[in-house]
Design brief:
Number of strands: 2
Order of helices and strands: EEHHHHHHH
Radius of gyration: 19 Å
Length: 129
């Protein structure tokens, strides 16, 4: 079990309030702490939100319903290939921040590609960095 410090803000507050948040590191720890049925309920509600987001994006892109249903059915948590390129690029920028910061050429190339909305190039640049 690890403990993280989280910050929350009230609706009208500019200042945040910090609290310690216990975070189980395994499914077994989570089930022991909260009970298996509650862990499953939390997973189910989070999964439903994720699947709704996939469908919403499909509708925004005016994809046919059968294609949206196929994308929802094909989703697997953690499947990077199913995530959008912009999300993959952002995740890689965060994950490889130290590498990018210390390589001026890589930094310039990633920044230029991201600025142009060329997220595939950003992913290609950072994936093996």
């Amino acid at each position: 079990m690890r403990t993280t410090t989280e910050t929350v803000r009230t609706k009208n507050s500019e200042e945040g309030f910090e609290f310690e948040c216990p975070m189980p590191e395994t499914l077994e720890e989570a089930a022991e702490l909260y009970g298996a049925e509650h862990v499953f309920a939390i997973f189910s509600s989070g999964l439903k939100v994720k699947l709704q987001n996939i469908a919403r994006e499909g509708f925004k892109q005016e994809k046919p319903l059968d294609e949206i249903n196929a994308a929802v059915a094909a989703y697997r948590p953690g499947n990077v290939a199913r995530r959008g390129l912009k999300t993959q690029a952002m995740d890689l920028l965060i994950e490889k921040n130290d590498i990018v910061k210390n390589d001026p050429d890589l930094h310039a190339a990633a920044r230029e590609a991201f600025g142009k909305g060329d997220f595939k190039t950003v992913v290609d640049l950072l994936q093996d960095a």
